[in-house]
Specification:
mainly alpha; de novo design (two linked rop proteins); about 75% helix; about 0% strand; elongated
């Protein structure tokens, strides 16, 4: 499949699912009232998507890789903040596991894309 738009990226697609899982959880109960944690985890979940997009639009593999690394780190931050939400009883174990596992899956896809880009000889974004 030729990747023509950022929406074609599997990494972006999974990041979108992750962001929506986070937003859904953060809108519930006491979590919705902890503005600082809610805003932080939602912002960083969105950042996973946005960094995939921004890197794709850079047009060059090396720059794309930099943004993918930012996306990967943001996914790790989602996992860390999910622990805090679990500890504060804002989310249950099931919601925590869904978010954590989706972040792990997203990071694996990002890692695979980084590896692909490193093997690429063109210097331009994948097709």
């Amino acid at each position: 499949m030729k990747i023509q738009r950022f929406e074609d990226l599997q990494a972006w697609q999974q990041a979108r699912v992750l962001a929506n899982l986070v937003y859904d959880a953060a809108e519930q109960g006491s979590f919705a009232k902890d503005f600082k944690l809610r805003n932080q985890i939602c912002d960083v979940a969105g950042s996973v998507m946005h960094n995939c997009t921004e890197g794709f639009d850079s047009g060059f593999d090396n720059e794309f890789i930099v943004f993918l690394k930012y996306a990967r780190r943001s996914a790790s931050e989602v996992q860390s903040e999910s622990y805090l939400a679990l500890d504060r009883k804002y989310i249950d174990e099931i919601a925590f596991r869904q978010i954590y596992d989706k972040a792990t899956e997203t990071k694996k896809i990002i890692n695979a894309l980084i590896a692909y880009l490193r093997r690429s000889k063109s210097g331009k974004k994948p097709s």
